[in-house]
Specification:
Blueprint (H helix, E strand, L loop, with lengths): L1 H51 L9 H13 L18 H4 L1 H24 L2 H22 L5
Length: 150
């Protein structure tokens, strides 16, 4: 009987102790996903910046823009409560001003649609203009919701 109680207590203590560890791993995963996605978005922006400077084909950017649209539509889900701790530059304002944070994502997705239309049309001037608008949306979100590099 004592062994059964001891074994039960040990299992319960082990399970109770792993819940926070599991949560920490999940939190780390979501932070890693955010970081990887934002890095990819930065790479897309750099590549498109070159196109706005005449280095590359405008039409070839449609797939890149599609990836960005998909990312920004799903990115808010990668900021669940409690994911403000760890290797992240996310500021508390994301969670205290969530409606605006979510609105920023809708806005960038709309601006990316305009960029996609310009890319699909092969219109270099419209692409460059829409690219500037997308960049403004990026800055509009980074300033209030992302800490500067350390």
């Amino acid at each position: 009987m004592r062994i059964t109680l001891l074994a039960t207590a040990l299992v319960a203590a082990t399970l109770a102790g792993t819940a926070p560890i599991g949560a920490a791993f999940a939190q780390g995963d979501v932070i890693a996903q955010r970081r990887a996605g934002m890095k990819r978005m930065g790479e897309h922006m750099q590549a498109m910046r070159a196109v706005t400077q005449g280095q590359g084909q405008v039409r070839a950017q449609v797939a890149r823009v599609d990836d960005m649209i998909a990312w920004y539509r799903t990115e808010p889900a990668l900021f669940p409560p409690g994911s403000d701790r760890g290797d992240t530059r996310a500021l508390p304002a994301i969670w205290t001003n969530r409606a605006d944070f979510d609105r920023q994502h809708v806005e960038i997705a709309e601006r990316l649609q305009a960029l996609r239309g310009a890319a699909q049309a092969g219109d270099a001037a419209a692409f460059a203009n829409a690219f500037q608008q997308v960049g403004a949306s990026c800055s509009g979100c980074h300033r209030p919701y992302r800490a500067p590099e350390r």
